[in-house]
Amino acid sequence: xxxxxxxxxxxxxxxxxxxxxxxxxxxxxxxxxxxxxxxxxxxxxxxxxxxxxxxxxxxxxxxxxxxxxxxxxxxxxxxxxxxxxxxxxxxxxxxxxxxxxxxxxxxxxxxxxxxxxxxxxxxxxxxxxxxxxxxxxxxxxxxxxxxxxxxxxxxxxxxxxxxxxxxxxxxxxxxxxxxxxxxxxxxxxxxxxxxxxxxxxxxxxxxxxxxxxxxxxxxxxxxxxxxxxxxxxxxxxxxxxxxxxxxxxxxxxxxxxxxxxxxxxxxxxxxxxxxxxxxxxxxxxxxxxxxxxxxxxxxxxxxxxxxxxxxxxxxxxxxxxxxxxxxxxxxxxxxxxxxxxxxxxxxxxxxxxxxxxxxxxxxxxxxxxxxxxxxxxxxxxxxxxxxxxxxxxxxxxxxxxxxxxxxxxxxxxxxxxxxxxxxxxxxxxxxxxxxxxxxxxxxxxxxxxxxxxxxxxxxxxxxxxxxxxxxxxxxxxx
Length: 478
Ligand code: ME8
Prior knowledge:
By secondary structure, the chain is an alpha/beta fold. The chain has helices at 24-42, 58-66, 71-88, 102-117, 171-179, 188-199, 228-233, 235-238, 246-252, 265-278, 310-317, 319-329, 340-370, 384-391, 395-416, 418-421, 426-447, 452-463; strands at 8-17, 46-54, 95-98, 121-131, 136-138, 156-165, 184-186, 205-206, 208-209, 217-218, 221-226, 257-261, 286-290, 293-295, 298-299, 336-337. It folds into two domains: 8-291, Rossmann fold; 339-462, Isoleucyl-tRNA Synthetase, Domain 1 (Orthogonal Bundle), CATH 1.10.730.10.
């Protein structure tokens, strides 16, 4: 198969605001995308996994000011923290885009020029409530006691002349594409939510601002700056050569998956595909909007300041344990509560006593009873369901099935009592152990997208000339 015959798979994450370092929520989307990228790479596909940072707008400018730094200097420092965090968590993107990069600025200029040429922009007056935390206008009905419920802060009343995009024209075409799954929105409940939102009628949106700080000027009206959300959405195109390498762009576009949180679903499922249609490009193939983590029942956000640092957790419990925990604890697509205590329970239970203990037991017996020498056989369990679940972003189910196999193997050992049986019936014990070694090798293979380090350790151990007792994969944490 030549390179050009390989199926392409282009997957993205939101590009995160650099007003702070990454938190467990930003790690969640990026981790899920990494798992899918690893899985599709293992199937031989030509994968492009993109993440990055959003660096324009008042939100960043204000945070930089508070830190006593210039916006770009502040953005540079925080963008580096995102890269480093992904590295520590074993997340390996193929590209990392920053909205202050030249390639992005040029692409956004071209995008806006095309948008204007499409005849879908017009000048108008806007009056409304703007929340800097969300970087978006809010309807009166969305406010709670006059405050933005997401940021607990009073939005600014903005009245200004802006350029508008005729989003209201796109309802019917979006409905058709969403309903027939040409443009897939997942999970299913989110698709229905978007359909009923569109059916209520879409309003035109402002695509420029008069007052925004640290934002790009409109190419034809230097008094106006580009609304940061449009600048940000376009990263998915600018990263693959929209302005500079049309061949590359045509190869990877449309994106196969945008992984996002449910907070930004309207931007990705309504505004984004409409903008793409306006400039003559195809909408993405699919958007998956996952749920939100809460902490002790409370919303967790950078703005509220009650965040969990994924890097600290990875340093304390290993990156693979954090990856396992986040994808096992809450079914992907649902909201769920997380905490370090919950991580510790999973770590000691599922990892130290579960997979880790099984691996030590089996390698120990192979070394002790058979001098580390055992034949390779086919795994006694069919674990294709694990991979299928990961493929469909049902990570927690895939992990559950894998851990059923761990429990099954433990029960088999407990029942057979090989340490008693080995004197009288060594052949039976040999058969049991070679089956368990095969099962562990298969588990490592199936789990590798989620737990790459652990999978490597298991594989290297089992593929050695002689199998020796393994050190604990997950030493207990008190
Ligand atoms: O919205 N639980 O950036 P952002 C789960 N720049 N996921 C969470 C979370 C939580 N408690 N909190 C945040 C922006 N997230 C824009 C995106 S894309 C073109 C522009 C994750 O830094 C989730 O993926 O506020 C959410 O969508 C994203 O962080 C928001 O990141």
